């Protein structure tokens, strides 16, 4: 009996790529800033009005964009006073948003505290395993032209189906919780050495916790490997800030968080519509309501 040609032999599971497929959407920038309150209060009232109104016009335009919005938040605590969150279709557009803010007269009263650059990301563990195994069963060599073509077809199909999650409108909720995070590597635990099937299983369990809070919180995950100091950023939007504590605490008990998660600094902000910027800078927090109509 003739032996199969090497090109037709199934690819062993251990030879499959370890990297899961991902989908990318809006480029995302968080700008955390301190406000020079003393210098601001030293201005005449008319000057404060003019400067705030100029900034409100720009922020209002950014809030209303159809191809990636921005939102302003008043931060709690010592880590900063204001946070701008930008969703854009490219890094070029993010940089333009930065430059537009920098040209405002209000920028003379802003001092950068920190920032975070990332891109909205959806991991495709389940689809990745199915696609890799199907190609392996056909004897398709990993990273060959046929392999790459099939992968691109899978990504294109999934990206079309996931458009609303990849290119979302800025959630209108009252509160935002943002934090960066890593998956542990080194010491005696290393997320990146686990088999993909095990990573997929743990992420599936992790996701089940989040789905139980679907009606209370909107979660947007961004990838930042190669862009910033951590591997992912997490934005949680809700009208009740206690849901952040409950959700994150419950997630600490699932295996992937308990064993492999490392967390950066947490930032909590309250949404400030552009039309209420002057009120905020005069020390009056905008009332809760529909964004843009308070």
Task: Please describe what this structure looks like.
By secondary structure, the chain is an alpha+beta fold. It has a domain at 24-120: Alpha-Beta Plaits (2-Layer Sandwich), CATH 3.30.70.1030. Helix content is 36%, strand content 24%. The protein contains 10 helices and 9 strands. An 8-stranded antiparallel barrel has the order 1-3-2-9-5-7-6-4. It is elongated, with a radius of gyration of 23 Å. The model is unreliable at 1-9 (pLDDT under 50).
Total helical segments: 10
Helix/strand/pairing category: alpha+beta
**Gyration radius, to the nearest Å?**
23 Å
Regions with pLDDT < 50 over 5+ consecutive residues? 1-9
Largest sheet: 8 strands, antiparallel, barrel
Q: How does the overall form come out from the CA principal axes?
A: elongated
Q: Determine and state the CATH class of the domain at 24-120.
A: Alpha Beta
CATH superfamily of the domain at 24-120: Apc35880, domain 1
The N- and C-terminal alpha carbons lie at a distance of 80 Å
CATH topology of the domain at 24-120: Alpha-Beta Plaits
Helix and strand pattern = EHHEEHEHHHEHEEHHEEH
- Helix percent reads 25-40%
Quantity of strands, as a count: 9
